[in-house]
Amino acid sequence: EIKRIGVLVLSYGTPKSIDDIEAYYTHIRRGHPPTPEQLQDLKNRYEAIVGGVFPLRENTDKQVKALEDRLNEKYPDTTFICYQGLKHAAPFIEDGVEQIVQDGLTEAVGVVLAPHYSSMSVGGYMKRAQAKADELGLNIRFVRSYHLHPKLIEALAERVEEALNRFEGVEKDRIKVIFTAHSLPEKILEMKDPYPEQLLETSRAVAAKTGLTNWQFGWQSAGQTGEPWLGPDVLDVLRTIKQEKQAEHVLICPVGFVSDHLEILYDLDIEAQLTARELGLHLERTRSLNTDPLYMDALSDVVYAQLE
Ligand code: FEC
C-alpha cells in the first residue's frame, strides 16, 4: 500500500480584499486594531502595488501546487497531499492541520515558505501547528530551515547573475550587492536566535557562487513598534553607499523572501527605488523565486528528508 503523507505548507498570508485589510492587520498586531492612520497607510501601500491586488495569495497557491507536483513526481513510492496553513489569513495554520486530519491522514510534514529560522517567524508557525496537531493527534514533523540547500543557493545565484547582466557595460566589481531580509526586533539577539547568522550564511554562499566581492547585508521592512529593530535598514544602506561614494550601481537580492508580495513590490520596488532615484543611484533587484523549479526541488528534498 502506498503511504500517504500530508504536507502542511506554511506561509504568511495576505488579505482577500481591501475590506479585509483591517482584520488582517489586527491579526498581525495580535488582536490590537491599527489606528485609522496606520490602516490608511497600509491600504495605500497595497493599492500602490500592481493594481491593488494581493499577489501573495496567488503566488502561495502556485507554490503549494508546484511543490505537490514535484514531490509526487520525485517520490512515486509515497503520495503527498499539500495543505496551506497561513499565519495571518484563512486558511489559518490551524485550519490546515484540521483539514489533514479530516482527510484521514495520520502523518504530516510541515515546511515554511521562508528558508531562515527565527523563533519569531518560523518558530511561531511551528508552535501553532504543533499545538493543533497535538490536540487532534496528528503526527507532524517540521523542516526548521533550509537556508544553505545547494539548490536554493543555485536558484539565488542564477538570479544574481541574471540581474548583474542588466547593468549593461558596468563592471561587476562596481555594482554593490545588498542582500536583504525582513528585520525583526533587536531583542532576538539576546535569545541567541539563529536568524541573522543564517541570513549571512545564505548571503556568503550566494556571493561565493557568483564571485561577488562588493556586497553587504541590510535589513528591510522593519515595523514601527517603538522598540529597536535590527539594522542597518536598506534605505540607510543606500544613503551610506551614496555618501561614501561606494558605488553608483546597486543590486538588491532579498534572500529572506521567496515570493513576490508587499515587502518586495512596495518596500523595494516603490520605496527603495524612490530613495535610490533621489540619491541618483541605479537600483535593480533580483527576481523572486516564486515557483522556480530549483526552489521546488530544494523544498521537496527537505520535506522528504523528514520521512527517512
Ligand atoms: O503581501 C502581503 O500581503 C504580505 C507581505 C508580508 C510578508 C511578511 C513577512 C514577514 N513579516 C515578518 C515579521 C513581521 C513583524 C511585524 C510585521 C508586520 C507586518 C505588517 C504587514 C506585513 N508584516 Fe510581516 N510580512 C508582510 C506584511 N511583520 C502588512 C504590518 C504593517 C507593517 O508593519 O508594515 C510587526 C508586528 C507588530 O506590529 O508587532 C515582526 C517576518 C517575515 C518573513 C518571514 C515569513 O514570511 O514568515 C519575519 C511576506
From TrEMBL:
Catalysis performed (reactions): Fe-coproporphyrin III + 2 H(+) = coproporphyrin III + Fe(2+)
Pfam families per record: Ferrochelatase
GO cellular component: cytoplasm
Residues annotated to bind Fe(2+): 182, 263
Top-level EC class: lyase
One MF annotation (Gene Ontology) recorded for this entry: ferrochelatase activity
Keyword entries, A-Z: Cytoplasm, Heme biosynthesis, Iron, Lyase, Metal-binding, Porphyrin biosynthesis
Pathway: Porphyrin-containing compound metabolism; protoheme biosynthesis
Binding positions for Fe-coproporphyrin III per the UniProt entry: 12, 29, 45-46, 125
Subcellular location: Cytoplasm
One of the GO biological process terms: heme biosynthetic process
EC numbers: 4.99.1.9
Function, as annotated: Involved in coproporphyrin-dependent heme b biosynthesis. Catalyzes the insertion of ferrous iron into coproporphyrin III to form Fe-coproporphyrin III.
NCBIfam families: hemH (TIGR00109)
Family (UniProt): Belongs to the ferrochelatase family.
UniProt-recorded name of the protein: Coproporphyrin III ferrochelatase
Chain's gene name: cpfC
